[in-house]
Design a protein that fits this description.
With about 300 residues, the protein is α/β, with parallel strands linked by helices. It contains twelve helices and twelve strands. Helix 3 runs parallel beside helix 4, helix 6 runs antiparallel to helix 7 and helix 6 packs across helix 9. The N and C termini lie far apart (about 40 Å). The chain binds nicotinamide-adenine-dinucleotide and ketopantoate.
Length: about 300
């Protein structure tokens, strides 16, 4: 039997991946936080994926972190700020040849996880697929996209990409995953905080062209300084293209704030500002943006880390 996929995080992306893998007949196990969550999950009878308005439920076996089966392949599908605690909860179970696929947005959490489990192979992912929860254990597939996967320290693609193919998960092995992650981080830094501060959809930033351009120039300087010139290439043009292409959408950070959820600010703008500081790079507009956003989150009573 092929290696089971352990999926930790039964949220939007975790459900999107787990259900498609299970639908392809691949062995999947869902790791729930504790016995209470496991019982609630079992009572629901599985994970439900809604695609094109049609709901299908998959009775994927669930387990708690304490389950005795060793983990050889783990899809970590929690938010960036939960990644280290989540990995700590299953670290004892990781087999010597374990592989972790890290779906977190931004940067910083992947490096922290890799340092936590140095014996495991950590593969980073950058995804443009979209999904959201519309009930407990129920996720709507919202936007078709692509997932790039890569391992900055080891360019050889893993054999389980065949499983993703079988499960119709659009993906590509990327030899320059760090560049992709930095590029996405820069896009998110140029767009998401401003949509929160100006209380607008992505398209509303067309009225704030100069502010966006100034941020792009500083972000490009940062990318160059940290050895990512390809991620800096034509950044402003791409940001403007994304603003136009997603004009009607609310950014993920806007949605987090509107729904009073913790945002991943520390792994996006926070990571950019921390990296600039480490390189002794003065980026006044980016730093001001971070301060404005932190003040705004505090004024709403939301966490700013
Ligand atoms: P989510 O909040 O919907 O799901 C995360 C799940 O992880 C939750 O169910 C939470 O309870 C669970 N979790 C956290 N800690 C846990 C623990 N210790 N043990 C067990 N479960 C635990 O988040 P999401 O939207 O799926 O996002 C996951 C990551 O993917 C984020 O970094 C996000 O930015 C990124 N991402 C999401 C989308 C999307 O469309 N949702 C798209 C691209 C990237
Ligand atoms: O990724 C995004 C997000 O909202 O998180 C886009 C649409 C690119 C805006 O930054």
């Amino acid at each position: 039997m092929s290696t089971p996929w352990h999926v930790l995080g039964a949220g939007s992306l975790g459900t999107l991946w787990a259900t498609r893998l299970a639908r392809a007949g691949l062995p999947v196990r869902l790791i729930l936080r504790n016995a209470a969550r496991l019982h609630a999950y079992q009572a629901a009878g599985g994970l439900t994926l809604v695609e094109h308005g049609e709901a299908s439920t998959y009775a994927i076996p669930g387990e708690t972190p304490e389950h005795p089966e060793p983990i050889r392949r783990l899809l970590l599908a929690c938010k960036a700020y939960d990644a280290q605690d989540a990995v700590a909860s299953i670290a004892q179970r990781l087999a010597p040849d374990a592989e972790l696929i890290l779906l977190q947005n931004g940067l910083g959490s992947q490096q922290a996880v890799a340092a936590q489990v140095p014996q495991a192979r950590c593969i980073c992912a950058s995804s443009t697929e979209g999904a959201f929860r519309d009930g407990d254990w129920r996720v709507v597939f919202a936007g078709h996209g692509y997932t790039w996967l890569g391992d900055a320290g080891h360019p050889v693609a893993p054999i389980w990409l065949d499983d993703l193919q079988a499960a119709n998960i659009p993906h590509e092995w990327s030899p320059d995953i760090l560049t992709r992650l930095w590029r996405k981080l820069a896009l998110n830094c140029a767009i998401n905080p401003l949509t929160v501060l100006h209380d607008c959809r992505n398209g509303g930033l067309q009225q704030h062209h100069c502010e966006v351009a100034t941020l792009c120039a500083e972000l490009a300087e940062l990318l160059e300084r940290c050895g990512q010139p390809a991620a800096a290439d034509n950044l402003q043009a791409e940001v403007e293209r994304v603003i136009q292409a997603t004009a009607a959408n609310f950014s993920s950070m806007y949605q987090d704030v509107a729904n009073r959820r913790r945002s991943e600010i520390s792994y996006l703008l926070g990571h950019a500002c921390k990296t600039a500081e480490r390189h002794q790079l003065h980026l006044p507009h980016l730093q001001q943006l971070q301060q404005r956003l932190i003040r705004h989150l505090h004024s709403l009573g939301l966490p700013s880390d």
